[in-house]
Amino acid sequence: FEPWKDPDEKPLIQFRNVTKKFGEFTAIDDITLDIFRREFFALLGPSGCGKTTLMRMLAGFEAPTKGSILLDGQDIAPVPPNRRAVNMMFQSYALFPHLSVWDNIAFGLKRSDMARDKIGARVEEMLRLTRLEQFARRKPHQISGGQRQRVALARSLAKAPKLLLLDEPLGALDKKLRQDTQFELMDIQEKTGTTFVIVTHDQEEAMTVASRVAVMDHGRMVQVDTPDRIYETPNSVYVADFIGDVNLVEGTAEPAGDGRLSIAWAEGQPAIMATAPDAISAGARVHFAIRPEKIAISTVKPADRANMIEGAVHDIAYLGNISTYKVEVAGGRMVKAQVANDRRISRRDISWDDKVWLSFTDTAGVVLLN
Ligand code: ATP
Fold first, then answer.
1. How confident is the model at residue 331 (pLDDT cuts 50, 70, 90)?
2. How confident is the model at residue 1 (pLDDT cuts 50, 70, 90)?
3. Is the predicted pLDDT of residue 104 greater than 50, yes or no?
4. Is it true that 13-240 and 245-368 share their CATH fold?
5. 351 pLDDT band (50/70/90 cuts)?
6. CA–CA dist 83, 232 (Å, integer)
7. Spatial contact of 326 and 315, defined as CB atoms under 8 Å apart
8. What pLDDT, on a 0 to 100 scale, did the predictor assign at position 111?
9. Fold designation for 13-240
10. Distance, CA 31 to ligand 1 centroid (Å)?
11. What is the 48 CA–ligand 1 centroid distance (Å)?
12. Closest atom of ligand 1 relative to the 23 alpha carbon
């Protein structure tokens, strides 16, 4: 089930070979991408990869150097920012301090050609949507940070844009409030059916709120996919490393003859057995990527598993629900294993310097060529 892909519907936004240069510098490098109606789409990547530039082109503050951007099938190049069915919500919220919550939300509507009697109803609707009814008469300095964030959201949605751009919308909130607000944001997005594009530095946030995530690097889209596929089947070392925690092992691949791949990675160590795309040729240099929670750890040798590696516990991080073990294996390499803390493994079972076995199945990781 892929809710953003309605076969009868054209994409809301189409980037067609879009390049953006600032002088000689290429900030966006030949991006082709469709974003569908009702999608919650996240742009993720390190600082300077081009996320904001992409948003600013959608908003109309920048024009592509090459290529075109279509909204609802129409090239938006000739449409000025204030005439686009696009709104942008900034991290600073940019609320008017001297206006009440009600007037802040009404501001854009009053400047539009909406009939006076409709404005009141629309503001009330936005207040209800963002649960701000009882704060309508207050000024921005008389409400909390989370409430201010909701006013900004209500104001951005008041004119019912087809597309809302959110630039680090939760950046000013502390962690707990931020997590609660993520669910609220998803809820409001679903209720209004507006397409949201969010820029965030926080990969957990992107994974939480978005239906699809684009991982960017140097102005290019490296992988565009659902959060679970980005996490489970990254298409490159870059994506595997950028999203979540990962163990990356470089080695030489040999087809094992049974459809599996054997990856020689350290002298005197058994090769890693992995299932892999059949395109990998004998002797190819590959990276094997495996998430820490896919590796089991025990002080006794486990019953036969496809992969078993001996090591010694170097570090333990107890995080309440989970514990992370840093285990030193052959050649001084560190491998991270993560286990849920339930009654089966108490943290007293494994301690520093213990000799342990790390084990994982042949489908637990991914083999990457680049
Ligand atoms: P951050 O997460 O730090 O906001 P970003 O991914 O949003 O980064 P952009 O702001 O899109 O990155 O910038 C992409 C690249 O383009 C950066 O190297 C930046 O220095 C450059 N850039 C952006 N705007 C301009 C400009 N007006 N003139 C020259 N270079 C620019």
1. confident
2. very low
3. yes
4. no
5. confident
6. 41
7. yes
8. 86
9. Rossmann fold (3.40.50)
10. 16
11. 5
12. 29
Q: Is pLDDT of 3 > 60?
A: no
Ligand 1: lining residues by beta carbon, under 6 Å? 22, 25, 27, 45, 47-53
Q: What was the pLDDT predicted at 34?
A: 95
CA distances from 126 to 98, 135, 159, 160, 172 (A): 20, 12, 10, 10, 22
Which of the 8 DSSP states describes residue 301? P
pTM of the model: 0.90
Amino acid at 89: M
Q: Return the residue whose CA atom lies nearest to atom 27 of ligand 1.
A: 22
Q: Collapse the DSSP code of 211 into the 3-class scheme (helix H, G, I; strand E, B; otherwise coil) and give the result.
A: coil
Closest ligand 1 atom, CA of 49? 6
Ligand 1 centroid–CA 22 distance in Å is: 9
**How far is Cα 166 from Cα 88, in angstroms, rounded to an integer?**
6
Q: How far is CA 336 from CA 185, 230, 293, in A?
A: 34, 20, 8
Distance from Cα 57 to the centre of ligand 1, integer Å:
12
For 109, the enclosing helix (H) or strand (E) is helix 101-111
pLDDT at 347: 52
Which CATH number does 245-368 carry? Answer: 2.40.50.100
Express each pLDDT in 179-234 by its tens digit: 889 999 999 999 999 999 999 888 999 999 999 999 999 999 999 999 999 999 99
Every domain of the chain and the residues it spans: 13-240, 245-368
Distance CA 268, CA 330 (A): 8
Instruction: Give the position, in ligand 1's atom list, of the atom nearest the Cα of 20.
Output: 16
